[in-house]
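ok so I'm stuck.
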Amino acid sequence: MNDTTDMLGRGALLGLALVVGAVAGWALFVRFPADLADLLGVLLLLATLGVAVRIAGNVAAAKFPAYNVAQVAVEGAITRDGDGGPVPSSPTTPGADEIVQQIERADEDPNADALVVKLNTPGGAVVPSDDIRLAAERFDGPTVAYATDTCASGGYWIASACDELWARRGSIVGSIGVRGSRFTATDLLDRVGVSYEQLTAGEFKEAGVPFTDLDDEEREYLQGLIDGYYDEFVERVAAGRDLDPEFVRSTEAKVYLGEEAHELGLIDEIGTREDVEARLEDRLDAEVAIEEFEPSEGPLGRLRGGATAMAYAFGSGIADAVDGDADFRL
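replied:
not stuck anymore, here's the structure
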């Protein structure tokens, strides 16, 4: 259906609901109960009209949707819900589980014929990034990834699952690599006269903890994990973007501005949001209206979000200093 037909359909449903509601309210509350005061009858009539309009609005939204494309945003660092470590991640960023839920909801929505994945992220945790990638890959319909400021690392991992990747000329794209980080506190412990001892079973159980120095075997072991993630990253990008794996490796995790990324084949097109909409109109052969799917929060969720914002403002600057175990991120 086109926009004009949808508008006429919604208007007809609402008009019919008003007429039916007015007649029913008048008959039930004004005409027949002669002993009711006129004012009470009018009030009940208005209440009936309100209920009728609300029901008709819900029916109209289902029958004549105002959108045919869903958009889900991935913004900020990519983390798992509730496992951002001792200091929470940015309070404005939904967790990966929430983003996956929105993509799945869009996939189940009969009105959503296509999906736009809006990306503005420097990357994040490996498995949460892959969860979002898999959800985008499962979407039954055209999928377009659109990079605004940054589509790096885990963001590019996600984009590799989409049919097309668009970016702006000034977008930062790439960083196809994996990092593992740890800090060492052995010198500090020596200076304050504190010793560390931990009883474990398994030779590499404590590999990467900050209170001991890495020996060669532990370093090789941890590097092997990073290399394994990197091999998978290269394979995903090469398959999803139809690129030579050796070329992907040759980028050496560098980032590129949109123009160069386009020349290298790391993105499909350079354009604005309007250009993306025009492409989707060609693919769907219909006018495009985009609805942004967002996590719904109740009062408790909003209260928790406020508390998280305060904690983030206090603790974001010391996050790396208190997270001692080796940390693998895209």
